[in-house]
Design brief:
12 strands; 34% helix; 251 residues
């Protein structure tokens, strides 16, 4: 049996009761550590769960799962823990698919993720367009800008997820993301973004450390957002209630 369990975005107490019960019943417990950063010490999880946690980097999940996670799920009960929600990254869908193909019973236990906790900034969730990621190697990459442009044309908000490599302690900053967007804007010359455009810079949403700062892009570049990971939001057409909520949430 393979349990894929979202553990939320804050600390060890964010796991659901159902998720905790499943973890306690498992023989092996893996924690995926490359798509986000845990907001607490792993020892906190181990103490609450009563289990030793095996750290799973990208190689373990994508290249070695047959001999580790999936093998353990065939031989007994295995938990695969994901920071946020289970399907916040396509790599987790791939693991679930491979498990199903091998005839392994799977249970999904969901939790909060960045895709719903962004509601705290004050913008209505149903008015977001396609979310997009800005990669570190972006010199010749325009897809995130194109996603933003398509959203902007129909008045939708855009969530930019910023690249991260927790195992290297490397996280894209909001300043780097803004610099990227302004650079591509200059090349595309579409007049969609300038320094005076309003945006929201965020870090650690869903945790006790969360920071939300709204303002013009030129000002957001220099703000202190505390600990990583970060994300950037550029609103589309806002209702007056969103404007009021954004002003209050960004203080």
């Amino acid at each position: 049996m393979l349990y894929l369990i979202g553990i939320g975005l804050n600390d060890e107490k964010d796991i659901s009761v159902k998720g905790l019960e499943a973890v306690k019943s498992c023989d092996k417990v893996y924690l995926e550590i490359y798509t986000s950063r845990l907001a607490c010490d792993i020892s906190n999880l181990e103490e609450l769960y009563g289990k030793k946690i095996i750290l799973a980097n990208r190689d373990v999940v994508e290249k070695q799962a047959e001999d580790t996670i999936l093998k353990d799920a065939e031989e007994g009960d295995c938990a695969f823990l994901v920071i946020g929600d289970v399907f916040g990254a396509t790599t987790h869908l791939d693991l679930w698919t491979r498990a199903k193909e091998k005839g392994i019973n799977c249970e999904i236990i969901h939790n909060a993720s960045i895709l719903n906790v962004i509601g705290v900034v004050g913008l209505e969730l149903y008015k977001y367009g396609k979310a997009t990621s800005i990669p570190f190697e972006n010199e010749n990459v325009i897809t995130p800008y194109v996603m933003f442009a398509n959203n902007q044309k129909i008045g939708l908000h855009t969530l930019f997820l910023l690249d991260l490599r927790p195992d290297e302690d490397k996280f894209m900053t909001i300043k780097e993301a803004i610099d990227y967007l302004l650079r591509v804007e200059s090349k595309e010359n579409k007049g969609l973004i300038d320094d005076n455009m309003v945006a929201i810079g965020c870090s650690h949403l869903g945790s006790k450390k969360q920071v939300i700062i709204s303002g013009k892009l030129k000002d957001l570049r220099e703000k202190d957002y505390g600990d990583e990971p970060y994300c950037l939001i550029i609103p589309g057409t806002m209702h007056f209630m969103e404007e009021e909520a954004l002003e209050l949430g960004g203080k």
